[in-house]
Amino acid sequence: MATALFLGRFQPPHVGHLLTIRHISSRYDRVIVGVTESAPSVMQIADVIGLLKQLLPEKNFEFVHVKGSVEEGTALIDLEFDVCCSGNPIVLERMKERGVRTEYVERSMDSIFSGTRERQTYLEGVMVRADLAKESSIVEFDLVETAKLRPIEKINPTHFKGIEVDIFENNVMNQPLIVDRVTLAVLDGSHRYAFLLKHGYELSPVLLCDYDDESIFVGNHLGHRFKYDRRKWISKQHVRATAISGNLYEPRTTRHFFPFRKKDRPTELGLLRRKSANSVDHLFSMVTKTQEILKNNDYIEELKFETSVLDEYMKEQVKVLAWLENQNRYINSLLS
After folding, report:
1. How many CB atoms lie within 10 A of CB 161?
2. What Cα–Cα distance (Å) separates residue 121 from each residue in 18, 85, 129, 196?
3. For the segment 111-169, what is each residue's pLDDT rounded down to a tens digit?
4. What is the DSSP letter of 248?
5. Of 197, 173, 200, whose CA–CA distance to 284 is shortest?
6. Whether the Cβ atoms of residue 58 and residue 23 lie closer than 8 Å to each other
7. What torsion, rounded to 10 degrees, do the Cα atoms 43, 47, 48, 54 define?
8. CB 178 within 8 A of CB 265
9. Is residue 318 classed as helix, strand or coil in its secondary structure?
10. Of 147, 210, 213, 223, which one's alpha carbon is 20 to 30 angstroms from that of 323?
11. DSSP strands (E only) in the chain
12. What are 180's strand-pairing partners?
């Protein structure tokens, strides 16, 4: 059984990496993907490995942390493999110096995401802006290139038409999209994203959020905001993997919970630089109007459940409030 080692920083992982790894796996029985510590870094290595596992779940892939840098000659590689595959000439040269058999593989680049270019964007732009956030430490309003955003969900055709009409009638997008700073995944606002893409708006109004912050979490039911459910299957890593792979969820699969309110922040369409229109057929879910209504009804039931839980919580808090007020009266009586 032949094993190939593929080394890289994967900062962050992108479609080009996936294409290259899958190409290698077509030639070898097993592929070890080694994540090195080379700078620059926009993601924790544990998060990179977790994301790659979500993107490439097949059993013939193994993902490991390689301490040190191959390019700098400090990498600690204690692995059993037959050949090291890479598209980086420096990596190949360093591995040859170690007496390792090497093979050059062409590095794949998808048309949307170039690792070097986007990593530079994160380092100089998105990630730097985290220190300049005006609203809070985890969210910031900005205008971001629509072409760089990555959807996570498909959209409902009829619902989209309604949103399309509403935005054009007002000539304003009232609510910005909510986007992960690292992957630029659209966490909230899939239909508005589709509108901007379809009508050729070069810029998108977004709230860039620190998706790694523990106060932001995701579920697949509104009840996950309040109650533990072992049937919950979705995670932030899964969401990021979906955004990078392009294998989108069906509409309204995710429920994101943010520690800030989704307030209106009107942005005139004229500020978003309209250019050529684009097809968004790849974003449409193949559902009928009847199926959309049924999905809406499911969501209505979730909202009813959420409000019932909130009502229970409020009743509990009213009892606590009354108890504390009685305690204060009792303490004051002892002081008098």
Report:
1. 11
2. 21, 27, 11, 21
3. 444 555 555 554 444 444 444 444 446 899 999 999 999 999 999 999 999 999 999 99
4. P
5. 197
6. no
7. -140
8. no
9. helix
10. 223
11. 3-8, 30-35, 61-65, 83-86, 102-104, 139-145, 172-173, 177-180, 186-188, 203-209, 217-219, 255-257, 267-268
12. 209
> In terms of DSSP bridges, do strands 61-65 and 255-257 run parallel, antiparallel, or are they unpaired?
unpaired
- Residue in the structure block whose two tokens are 């990630």: 127
223 contacts 210 by C-beta, under 8 angstroms: no
Q: What span, in angstroms and rounded, lies between the C-alpha atoms of 58 and 65?
A: 18
pTM for this prediction: 0.69
Helix (H) or strand (E) holding 117: helix 115-121
The length of the chain in residues reads 336
Residue 174, token pair as written in the block: 């009232």
As a whole number of angstroms, the distance between CA 62 and CA 3 comes to: 10
**Torsion sign (Cα): 264, 210, 196, 303:** negative
- Residue 60: alpha-carbon gap to chain centroid: 25
CA distance 91 to 158: 51
CA distance 145 to 272: 9
CA 295 to chain centre: 24
What totals of helices (H) and strands (E) does the chain contain, helices first?
A: 9, 13
Kindly report, residue by residue over 76-117, the tens digit of the pLDDT. Answer: 999 999 999 998 888 999 999 999 999 998 876 554 445 555
Handedness of CA 312, 315, 317, 323 (dihedral sign): negative
Whole-angstrom distance, CA of residue 173 vs CA of residue 269: 7
Say which residue, 87 or 28, is predicted with more confidence. Answer: 28
Q: Which two tokens stand for residue 216?
A: 């932001």
Please give the structure tokens belonging to residue 99: 């007496």
| Under 8 Å between Cβ of 255 and 225 | yes
Ramachandran quadrant class, 209 (left: phi over 0; alpha: psi -120 to 50; beta: rest)? beta
What 3-state DSSP class applies to 108?
A: coil
